[in-house]
């Protein structure tokens, strides 16, 4: 992992030629402390820079050639840490390759501003094209209402049951659930304020960058009220869903308990995130798309539109039938 540069550090013109690792450190420093990008984005940048520096880190910027980058791109493999701790390497998607090349280019662009380098070999490497594919949702990526109730019945722990209920009835992302605090719960007005997200061990803003409020169904309010009966961690600043010592819940352990609950309920295996999709597919027939967009915190209406395929079409079917009716 690349070392984090202190905030007060100012780049100095080097006496010797700059390595890719040094340039990456400066790029990360700039993005975090001057550009003020989101913490989760900085962490993603850092992961990309780490992978780039595994191969190019000790090379000087001037010595890296487009041909070397092309060979690195051809042999690059995406890495993912599995639940058992093993590292899985797979063929990367074009989007992943594009992301790494964009970040590598960012390192060189910042080096040009700070160190005055003139050559940027990354610009000569062809990136995979950006495909603006319309997002779709498979019919097995969510549960039906009867399934949600079966899941909640099969969940034995009060905290887990409240988490699953809030995910399904309010459409919150996992990070938003884990960052939820009591000050965000308004029992009187039946509202939940989504103010933060807990990802990669740290709290930051929600994915869209903005907070929002969502309606709190009675089933959710009842589950949360039950959590208010505990003896500790009830102050407004305290987390609603607590792990050991009042800290954030371990998301990986939560996912395992979720899958166990699905098994007990004899339900198909879906992801915990699919409870959010369950909310979207059910509510798309009850509210207009703009309202659903606001409730789910989508940055654009295009994302919300992936739920439109699951909208109740009974009225539309009646219109078609009426159009073909013979007098």
Tell me about this structure.
This protein is mainly alpha-helical and 327 residues long. The chain has two domains: 105 residues, Tyrosine recombinase, N-terminal domain (DNA polymerase, domain 1, Orthogonal Bundle); 172 residues, hpI Integrase, Chain A (Orthogonal Bundle), CATH 1.10.443. Helices cover 45% and strands 7% of the residues. It has 13 helices and seven strands. A three-stranded antiparallel sheet has the order 3-4-7. Strand 5 and strand 6 form a beta hairpin. The longest helix has 22 residues.
Largest sheet: 3 strands, antiparallel
What's the helical proportion of residues?
40-55%
Q: How many domains make up the 3D coordinates?
A: 2
Uncertain parts? none
Mean pLDDT: 90
Radius of gyration in whole Å, from Cα? Answer: 24 Å
Structural class: mainly alpha
Strand percentage lies at 5-15%
Q: What is the number of helices?
A: 13
Instruction: Kindly state the number of beta strands.
Output: 7
CATH class categorisation of the largest domain: Mainly Alpha
Shape: globular
What is the distance, rounded to the nearest whole angstrom, between the alpha carbons of the first and last residues?
Answer: 75 Å
CATH topology of the largest domain: hpI Integrase, Chain A
What quaternary form is this? single chain
Strand order of the largest sheet: 3-4-7
Instruction: Tell me what the CATH architecture of the largest domain is.
Output: Orthogonal Bundle
SSE string, helices as H and strands as E = HHHEEHHHHEEEEEHHHHHH
CATH superfamily of the largest domain: Intergrase catalytic core
């Amino acid at each position: 992992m690349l070392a984090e540069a202190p905030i007060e550090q100012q780049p100095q013109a080097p006496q010797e030629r700059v390595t890719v690792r040094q340039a990456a450190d400066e790029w990360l420093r700039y993005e975090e402390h001057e550009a003020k990008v989101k913490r989760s984005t900085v962490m993603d940048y850092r992961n990309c820079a780490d992978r780039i520096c595994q191969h190019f880190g000790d090379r000087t910027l001037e010595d890296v050639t487009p041909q070397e980058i092309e060979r690195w791109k051809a042999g690059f493999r995406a890495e993912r840490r599995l639940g058992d701790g093993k590292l899985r390497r797979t063929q990367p998607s074009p989007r992943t390759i594009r992301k790494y090349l964009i970040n590598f280019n960012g390192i060189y662009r910042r080096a040009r501003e700070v160190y005055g380098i003139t050559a940027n070999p990354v610009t000569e490497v062809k990136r995979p094209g950006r495909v603006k594919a319309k997002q779709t949702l498979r019919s097995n990526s969510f549960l039906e209402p009867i399934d949600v109730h079966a899941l909640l019945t099969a969940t034995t722990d009060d905290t887990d049951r409240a988490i699953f209920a809030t995910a399904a009835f309010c459409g919150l992302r996992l990070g938003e659930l884990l960052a939820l605090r009591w000050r965000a719960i308004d029992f009187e007005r039946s509202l939940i304020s989504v103010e933060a997200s807990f990802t990669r061990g740290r709290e930051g803003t929600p994915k869209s960058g903005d907070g929002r409020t969502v309606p709190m169904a009675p089933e959710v309010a009842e589950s949360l009220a039950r959590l208010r009966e505990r003896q500790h961690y009830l102050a407004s600043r305290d987390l609603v869903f607590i792990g050991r010592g009042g800290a954030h819940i371990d998301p990986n352990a939560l996912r395992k308990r979720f899958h166990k609950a699905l098994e007990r309920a004899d339900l198909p295996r879906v992801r915990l995130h699919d409870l959010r999709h369950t909310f979207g597919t059910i509510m798309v027939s009850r509210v207009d798309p703009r309202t659903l967009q606001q409730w789910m915190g989508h940055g654009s209406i295009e994302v919300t539109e992936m739920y439109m395929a699951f909208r109740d079409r009974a009225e539309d079917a009646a219109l078609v039938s009426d159009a073909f009716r013979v007098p």
